[in-house]
Specification:
This protein is mostly helical and about 120 residues long. It has five helices and four strands, in the order ααααββββα. The strands form two sheets. It has a two-stranded antiparallel sheet. A two-stranded antiparallel ribbon has the order 2-3. The protein is elongated.
């Protein structure tokens, strides 16, 4: 994250012109030690874990590319999208969805019963 928009844009242009790599920028400017060591690589990031403005920009990209600087809460992000993984409904995921839906239904029923008992 960069506090200054002008710096974010300058670094973006430098990466685009191949004067510096994304990993070098990450190594120089990221404060988080572990993330810096990984060259800015966060691994798989889920859409639900991103702020809406970041999510829409990232998932609008259709291939591996560097996004223009995006404003966050505390500064500007330089984001390199390596790959957009298409969701797959596996047996494990289907089971998790079923369990989540069932747990939601049970909570709803418990609240209804508690309401009826309190009246």
């Amino acid at each position: 994250m960069l506090a200054d928009q002008a710096m974010a844009e300058e670094l973006y242009e430098s990466i685009q012109e191949e004067e510096i790599s994304f990993q070098e920028v990450a190594h120089r400017y990221i404060e988080d030690v572990e993330l810096r060591r990984k060259g800015g690589y966060r691994g798989t990031v889920y859409r639900k874990d991103l702020r809406p403005n970041l999510s829409s920009a990232i998932f609008a990209s259709d291939s591996s590319r560097l996004l223009k600087p995006l404003q966050g809460d505390q500064g500007f992000h330089l984001i390199f999208v390596e790959e957009i993984l298409k969701p797959k409904l596996t047996e494990e995921l289907a089971l998790k969805i079923g369990v989540d839906l069932f747990n939601g239904w049970v909570k709803e029923k418990i609240q209804e019963i508690e309401y009826e008992l309190s009246n």
